[in-house]
Design a protein that fits this description.
This protein is mostly helical and 167 residues long. 54% of the residues lie in helices and 11% in strands. It contains 3 helices and 2 strands, in the order E-E-H-H-H. The protein has a two-stranded antiparallel sheet with strand order 1-2. Strand 1 (10-19) and strand 2 form a beta hairpin. The longest helix has 70 residues, at 54-123. The chain is rod-shaped and about 135 Å long.
């Protein structure tokens, strides 16, 4: 090879190679007077795509579609679960708000009831009731025979099981 071609690649001849059922022209390269290291680097950088069988490609496409469908189904399932979760959270929040409003109403009613009880108790004059009962209705204090003492009970509830003698 002459010095004029030094540093340039010279194409010698072409070959027809079939890759994935397509005709591809492969050209042989005359590396001229390059040293062996450069030649090895150039040969390594040229990559040939290996021929792949169409059945293998179709199988990989089917497998990819299957994975895609599986991913879409998983995504839909996650979406459904999240939709249900959001619905439950909104129901819980709505019930919490209802409980809060009813607690406020209950507290208002308790305050109103306590105020009404205090008003009624302050309006009742026990001395006036005692005077009316004794003078107008004829009430008298009970005698010692009429008083029955019950012992042994510590609570405020007493149940009468039989008739008291003397009545």
């Amino acid at each position: 090879m002459s010095n004029a071609n030094h540093g340039r690649m010279v194409y010698k001849q072409t070959q027809t190679v079939y890759n994935r059922s397509n005709a591809v022209r492969k050209q042989d390269i005359d590396y001229g007077s390059y040293d062996s290291d450069v030649e090895r680097q150039i040969r390594r950088s040229i990559k040939e795509v290996p021929y792949r069988d169409t059945r293998t490609v179709r199988g990989e496409v089917r497998k990819s579609l299957l994975y895609l469908m599986l991913f879409v189904c998983a995504l839909m399932a996650v979406g459904y679960v999240l939709y249900g979760y959001i619905g439950l959270r909104s129901d819980i929040n709505r019930k919490i708000e209802t409980i809060s409003s009813k607690e406020i109403l209950l507290n208002d009613l308790i305050i109103e009831n306590d105020e009404e009880y205090t008003r009624l108790m302050s309006s009742v004059d026990l001395n006036e009731i005692n005077r009316i009962a004794r003078q107008e209705l004829g009430m008298v204090n009970p005698t010692s025979e009429q008083v029955v003492v019950i012992s042994g009970e510590t609570n405020d509830y007493v149940k009468q099981e039989k008739e008291v003698e003397g009545n």
